[in-house]
Model the fold of this input.
Amino acid sequence: MNILFVCLGNICRSPMAEAVFQRILEREHATERFTIDSAGLIGFHAGELPDSRMRYHAGKRGYSLTHRSRPFSRADFDRFDMIIGMDDQNINGLNYLAHTLEETRKIFRMTDFCRNIEADHVPDPYYGGDQGFENVIDLLEDACEGLFLQLAVKSKQ
Ligand code: 4NP
Done:
């Protein structure tokens, strides 16, 4: 199963989602069953490490963010089984880039996997303060647990 997490700049939310899901895969001894990556709908930050504020808040919970930002590419529709956006803007952008129903069906919303927190998007923390970054990690930890559980259940069916 190949999963791509997508946000706007690929320097805050989606590299954080990748790190959270990676830690769950390691805990569950499931790393060989998944290939994960993240990308942004804009290439403005291509090549950059995640935003220093995101890295700081991630570090407080033991995550190390080493991903380098890269723009989403149409080839990602072939490479990945699930393409998971963080908010309406991401989902709309991905739907715009999809050419076929098969591609459209690969697009998911991160918060649809939340089990404890009620939310319909992962808010962009870029122009906000510390609490925004903490909120991103709270949402992603909840959603990634739900995502893993859903896929684990599916693989047993
Ligand atoms: P992200 O946050 O989409 O969570 O990586 C953003 C990063 C950069 C910008 C916007 C959002 N930007 O406009 O440069």
Observations:
- Residues 7-13, 40, 44, 124, 126 surround 4-nitrophenyl phosphate (CB under 6 Å).
- The CA atoms of residues 78 and 103 lie 8 Å apart.
- The chain has one domain: 2-156.
- The first strand starts at residue 2 and ends at 7.
